[in-house]
Amino acid sequence: MILVEGQTGDAMYVLRHDAVKVTWSNGDGKEVVLAFLRQGQYFGEMSVLDGRVRSANVIATDETEVYVIKRSEFLGVLERNPSLSIHLLKQLAGQIRASDQQIEYLALGDADS
Questions:
Q1: Can you give the CATH number for the domain in which 47 is found?
Q2: Residue that wins the pLDDT comparison between 99 and 52
Q3: pLDDT of 11-36, one tens digit each?
Q4: Residue 43 belongs to some domain of the structure
Q5: pLDDT of residue 95
Q6: In whole angstroms, what is the distance from residue 15 CA to residue 62 CA?
């Protein structure tokens, strides 16, 4: 377990090697897999940006290596590199659009779907 939903977070992570899964879970042990991330992808950015608790669990699927970027360092890099900020905003917008599509499908789809 790399990150635990509901815990405070002061760092984000970039996958150096292998993969992780991002999940939500309830108290009964049920788990929903939100995503699988691979080398070069990142996670934990939401807590770093908004200062709130972790929104999901991140679990290594095998022996995994990550780079750790502390909140203060990351925010400093964003301030000095507007192009990186724009890239991150585009990535977050894409995630929101994908979530919106999934919500639309679940809310407006017929019962058989």
A1: 2.60.120.10
A2: 52
A3: 999 999 999 999 998 878 788 898 99
A4: yes
A5: 87
A6: 12
